[in-house]
Fold this sequence. Notes:
Blueprint: E1 5-11, E2 14-21, E3 28-32, H1 43-51, E4 55-59, H2 78-92, E5 99-104, H3 106-117, E6 122-128, H4 141-149, H5 154-157, H6 163-171, H7 173-181, H8 213-226, H9 229-235, H10 238-244, E7 257-262, H11 273-278, H12 281-285, E8 289-295, H13 302-305, H14 307-318
Parallel strand pairs: 3-4, 3-5, 5-6, 6-7, 7-8
Antiparallel strand pairs: 1-2, 2-4
Helix pairs in contact: 1-14, 2-3, 7-8
Amino acid sequence: MEAIEHRFLDVNGINMHVAEMGPVNGPVILFIHGFPELWYSWRHQIVALASLGYRAVAPDMRGYGDTDAPSDPRSYTVFHIVGDLIGLLDAVAPHQEKVFVVGHDWGAYMAWFLCLFRPDRVKALVNLSVTLPPRNPKMKIIDMIRAVYGDDYYMCRIQEHGDIEAEFAELGTERIVKEFLTYRHPGPLFLPKGKVFSRPAETPLVLPSWLSEEDVQYYTSKFEKKGFAGGLNYYRNLNLNWELTAPWTGAQVKVPVKFVVGDQDLTYNSLGNKDYIEKGGFKRDVPLLQEVVVMEGVAHFLTQEKPEEISKHIYDFFQKF
Length: 321
């Protein structure tokens, strides 16, 4: 971990914090994190892949950690985020026409759009947890989700700016970090008003073996400083993204892809994702999908829960190219 380098880059109008490791001229792997995470979620993969000759690059995404967090919620659309990533690639890999990409959660979502908008920059993709969100031209995303799961579903609860932040503040940053990172229920996540997590706030939380108090304190220190609003703003742009991406209705991702998900992951067990993966929809929309791995007994934060296995999945796929 001490060998990981840190620097700040001016990309797409924001100051972005980036963690890097590996040979300067090695093939770049761009790691894109999700919510509520940081570059730190890739700490195991950065070290592992750097030791195998790759240049691992993991930013704190817009709104997170030591990267700028614009105050306007509408500054977090897919176009802003993909713009950040292209600016980052121009800065860290100016002589590499294409790079490898790994995404998890919101990072996976943004990686899909990076591949849709700029396939010329991506050699191959390993995406974790979140499948390609095919655009339904007849219904906005949040409207569709609300119709299925109601107002307490977490994506719906997050929509009103400042509302869920106030509840998070009441519970405290450390508690929120622990609640999310230890969540293992294989089904839809509901955050009812006034009772955002099902157990009382005073109930002690036992950390799994793969998550230390030191890890929790790192996340907590960064979210204490930055707050959760930047990360939550990604959710608040789901309907706006739906409007802006109308030209890509029916578009396919045409880069080589490997997809990995845990069978206990809430994303795998909600919104019809299992059927989408197993009944041909996923392969239809991602024709170069080469492999789907469903990890038994593994939940959402698989990069940390099963670090060696995830690093091996990434390496085994990328060494083909």
